[in-house]
Specification:
By secondary structure, this protein is mostly helical. It has 53 helices and no strands. Helix 35 packs antiparallel against helix 36 (670-683) and helix 50 runs antiparallel to helix 51 (945-961).
């Protein structure tokens, strides 16, 4: 029983074990099936169902590989389902199962999860643990794309492109994206050819088409593939944003412009500006301006181009150049010159810099306007910097033309001196410039300098006509220097030249030669030459009249009175202006021929025709003498009295008194005669008439048998003592003898001794004159002046020379008041028209120095009324009248007088007058006329630096008044940069600083259209 129970128990145990074992096998099979079902669902991407099964399996006790697989797949399901716990599950997995087969995949998914959450740095860390050899093709594409994108986001473009390039050749979603981003990186780094290759493969793909086509047109634009840009389909514009549309239209406009299809370019520019209202770039504004220029819409072109000038770059330089050409087309040369200058100052493009420089200089030539030698300095610098340039000869020619137009000849001479291999044309031009420079110097009365340059022009001999002109004017310069023999030689040399006879002043050379002979008292030769001149064709009435007058003078001196009369008559017939001299000389001829009635008639006619003639004293005296000679003593006395009354301090009055005394003596009117004759002796003891009068007085007293009274009278007459007179003569002639031997030191001492011993000597006046002359030769001007002053105290005609010298010396010493009184006495004693000129000039100069303005104006007017006043002194007189008028604010008179100075004057005087005329116009606010006047000065007087710069400063004021602030500042800057006259430079600086304060926000419009 026991055995049976035991067996049963064993069987039961065995049966139970069997049932347990069977039950365990069934459970395992069920679990495996569940795992397989989960994997099946996972592989079918039914991640929700799969995850539920994996979680069931996880809840059971599983170990080993199954546990790792379930954990991985559960985490993977969360990843694919985008559950929030995915990253944590994957991270836990790689930490718990570091050696599991799915760890590589888990790291890959971790990288992806971080990537999806845009945590690119952590994503890369996940990928760093991923072995690409264990990834399938799709995963490899994703791996390289995501990794490249991470690098891209982390700004490691090199690594990014490296990863994109790994897969861009593929044929899947990630490959296309990688290709796009790789091409984009190439585009951004200007590898346009590589970018184009990749973009071309994507342009027809729907996902990439729009963006890729935008890149492609931009690449074509950037690589200047203009034709391809123009072929871009406009239909595409309907599918892009407004911003993209604006960019495309701008590129097409640019492409058409660069292809030279300006009509199409303008179409797209109009679309850009009007329809799309895009903000024009500076380049587009430049192109639009260029198109308008090509269409000859110059004003609109300038308006558009002015908007480009906002930056200091090469585009602005090109714009200045184009604006300059547009302004030239509108004939706005001054504005164009400023634009070209601005382009020249910007040295971004050497070719444009050079072209602007040449255009600026050409316009300076054309306008005869070179503010502060800018154009000359520019072209000179170009020659120095480009000595072997093909344009160097053109540059030299520009210097020549510039100098001719601006009269800046010395600069051109210097420049041409450096030029090598001069052609014959250049040599002719060089000779012309030398000639013109000499003429300029001659007009400025720098005769010696002028002669030097005339000689240069003559030695060149490139143009025979010019050589003849230079010879003539060189002779004229010698003549004005009073180098008569040299002038004579040069005039004769000129007359022998073949080219001379065709010149308008050929016959005038005979006139000058005649004067040379006349001045040298070679009257017969002078007659021949004056006669040749008179018979030749003439244009100047005044010169012809003068030549006839001089012919008469020559014949009068040679006592050919009848011929002289004929020539004086001819002179008056040519022109009765200043005919009083010729008529007077004719009267003298009639008297010499003893035709006294005709002489009286001539003198009376002269008085009627010229009642204010400076010869009135001579006319009255000659009338008196003629009546006396022809026994009409009553009329003679009448005229002698007129001379005495009207001109009491002249030599004519002394002579008239003597003649009157003689007439009265002849009429037995002894007492009346004595009164007149004693007046001569007592008041004019130093004259020869006084000695003659004393002899007549002696005869009268003898005839009256009244010797005692005569002796009593002569006791008070110094020169009446005969023995004293002998001593006087011996002392004087001894000193004079030493003087004639040019022994000035010994002569000075001898004359001083004579004056001490014979203070009222017979020869006292001569002694003082000689002593003064010795002192001047010994360079003792103060000693000389002392003697001249003593002589000047007696203002009589015989002392006139001493008075003149005293006046000049006192003026030189700055003693203007003393000089003024001497000049007044000198003028009072002048008996002929020509004699009035010098003292009147002296008085005028003194009034000017003493600032006695009213008197200065009056004496200047008097000077202008005197015939034959030198031209330069007439100019001075007009200038003084004008200056006084300015002080008195008599603008009408000032303007009239300055206009005369501007017309008659040359050099500084004319330039100064021109300046004040401009200043008056500024006062009147006549801005346009003032500007024109200022430019006239600048153009006509380039060598008068002070007045040229002053005019530029005045121009800046005019520009301000015309609201052209930019040009005012540019003008002042030009002065500051180039002027070396400190006072004017400082004035310019002050004005510029004032402008900057007054107009702090003023936009400097470079191309102001006036």
């Amino acid at each position: 029983m026991k055995r049976k129970n035991c067996l049963f128990f064993l069987w039961l145990i065995s049966l139970l074990s069997f049932f347990v074992s069977a039950q365990e096998s069934e459970s395992l099979r069920e679990q495996n099936q569940l795992f397989r079902n989960a994997l099946d669902l996972f592989n079918k991407k039914e991640y929700t169902s799969a995850q539920q099964l994996f979680k069931q399996i996880e809840n059971r006790e599983i170990t080993g590989k199954e546990s790792a697989s379930v954990a991985f797949h559960n985490a993977a399901c969360s990843y694919y389902l985008h559950n929030n716990d995915a990253l944590q599950l994957l991270t836990d997995f790689v930490e718990d199962f570091q050696t599991a087969n799915d760890v590589n995949e888990a790291y890959f998914l971790i990288g992806n999860e971080y990537f999806n959450n845009k945590k690119y740095k952590q994503s890369l860390e996940g990928y760093e643990h991923t072995n690409t050899l264990r990834l399938n093709n799709d995963e490899i594409s994703q791996y390289f794309f995501n990794k490249g994108y991470c690098f891209l986001m982390l700004e490691n473009e090199e690594k990014a492109k490296e990863h994109f390039d790994q897969i861009k050749a593929g044929n899947n979603e990630y490959a296309y994206k990688a290709r796009f981003y790789s091409a984009t990186l190439d585009y951004q780094n200007e590898r346009y050819a590589e970018a184009r290759t990749d973009f071309e493969t994507l342009k027809d793909m729907e996902d990439f088409s729009q963006r890729v086509n935008l890149y492609l047109i931009d690449i074509d634009h950037k690589t200047q593939n203009w034709e391809q840009v123009t072929l871009f389909d406009d239909e595409f514009l309907n599918n892009v944003s407004k911003k993209e549309k604006i960019a495309i239209v701008a590129m097409k406009a640019d492409a058409y412009f660069n292809r030279g299809d300006y009509e199409q370019a303008q179409k797209y520019m109009d679309m850009y500006e009007t329809k799309l209202r895009g903000k024009e770039s500076r380049i587009m504004q430049y192109q639009y301006g260029f198109i308008l220029y090509q269409q000859k819409s110059y004003a609109q072109s300038i308006e558009k181009l002015n908007k480009v000038i906002t930056e200091n770059d090469s585009l602005t330089q090109s714009t200045y150049q184009l604006i300059g050409y547009a302004q030239l087309a509108l004939d706005k040369k001054k504005e164009a010159q400023r634009s070209f200058y601005s382009g020249y100052k910007m040295d971004f493009q050497p070719s444009i810099t050079e072209e602007c420089m040449f255009n600026y200089v050409k316009l300076a030539c054309d306008l005869s306007y070179d503010p502060y030698r800018q154009a000359f300095n520019m072209i000179k610098q170009y020659i120095e910097e480009h000595p072997d340039s093909e344009q160097s000869e053109e540059a030299y020619l520009l210097i020549v033309n510039l100098s001719l137009s601006t009269k800046n000849y010395s600069d051109a001479i210097s420049a041409l001196a450096e030029m090598k291999n001069k052609s014959n044309d250049i040599l002719k031009i060089e000779q012309k410039i030398q000639f013109l420079h000499a003429v300029n110097l001659m007009n400025a009365q720098k005769y010696q300098d002028a002669i030097n340059w005339f000689q240069h022009a003559i030695s060149s001999d490139a143009d025979m006509n010019l050589t003849a002109k230079a010879t003539y004017w060189m002779a004229e310069s010698y003549y004005r220097l009073n180098m008569l023999s040299v002038a004579d030689t040069e005039y004769k040399k000129f007359q022998k030249m073949t080219a001379a006879k065709d010149l308008p002043f050929y016959y005038q050379s005979y006139y000058h030669l005649a004067y040379i002979q006349y001045d040298q008292k070679k009257y017969e030769t002078a007659i021949t030459l004056f006669d040749d001149f008179v018979k030749a064709p003439h244009q100047s009435v005044s010169i012809l009249r003068d030549a006839l007058t001089r012919l008469g003078d020559c014949n009068y001196i040679l006592k050919n009175y009848q011929q002289a009369i004929e020539q004086y008559d001819q002179a008056v017939a040519v022109s009765d202006q200043e005919g009083d001299y010729a008529m007077f000389q004719k009267a003298l001829c009639l008297g010499a021929l003893k035709r006294y009635d005709e002489k009286i008639e001539q003198l009376n006619s002269l008085m009627k025709s010229y009642p204010k003639s400076p010869l009135t004293r001579e006319i009255l005296y000659e009338s008196a003498m003629t009546y006396l000679i022809s026994d009409h003593t009553s009329q003679a006395l009448t005229y002698f009295d007129k001379v005495i009354q009207k001109y009491p301090m002249t030599q004519f009055a002394v002579k008239s008194k003597l003649r009157k005394g003689l007439i009265l003596y002849g009429q037995d009117k002894n007492q009346e005669s004595l009164l007149v004759l004693k007046d001569v002796v007592d008041h004019h003891p130093e004259t020869s008439e006084a000695h003659e009068a004393l002899k007549v007085i002696e005869n009268i007293y003898l005839s009256m048998n009244n010797i005692d009274e005569y002796l009593a009278y002569t006791s008070n007459v110094p020169f009446a003592d005969i023995s004293q007179a002998q001593k006087d003569s011996l002392a004087y002639f001894s000193a004079e003898n030493v003087y004639t031997q040019s022994n000035y030191s010994q002569a000075l001492s001898a004359f001083q001794t004579y004056i001490q011993q014979f203070s009222n000597g017979i020869f006292i006046k001569n002694a003082r004159n000689y002593l003064a002359d010795c002192a001047m030769n010994l360079q003792q001007p103060d000693v000389a002046l002392e003697q001249y002053e003593i002589l000047a105290q007696t203002p009589i005609e015989s002392n006139k020379a001493a008075i003149e010298k005293a006046a000049a010396m006192q003026y030189e010493k700055g003693n203007y008041q003393q000089a003024l009184q001497h000049y007044k006495n000198y003028r009072m004693l002048s008996t002929q028209t020509g004699d009035l000129i010098e003292p009147t000039i002296g008085i005028m100069n003194c009034y000017n120095q003493l600032q006695q303005w009213d008197s200065l104006s009056m004496i200047s007017l008097e000077l202008l009324s005197i015939p034959n006043v030198p031209k330069n002194k007439m100019v001075e007189a007009h200038q003084h009248i004008a200056t006084v008028a300015v002080q008195q604010k008599n603008w009408a008179l000032a303007k009239r007088e300055f206009q005369v100075v501007r017309l008659l004057g040359n050099g500084e005087a004319a330039a100064k007058a021109n300046y004040y005329l401009t200043e008056i116009l500024v006062q009147e606010e006549n801005w346009d006329a003032a500007m024109e006047s200022a430019y006239d000065l600048i153009n006509d007087f380039p060598n008068e630096d002070y007045w040229v710069v002053s005019s530029f400063i005045l121009l800046s004021d005019i520009y301000v008044a015309k609201e052209n602030i930019f040009q005012a500042e540019q003008t002042l800057n030009s002065i500051i940069e180039n002027c070396d006259i400190e006072t004017l430079k400082n004035r310019a600086i002050e004005k510029l600083n004032s402008l900057k304060i007054q107009y702090p926000d003023q936009e400097q419009e470079t191309n102001e259209n006036e």
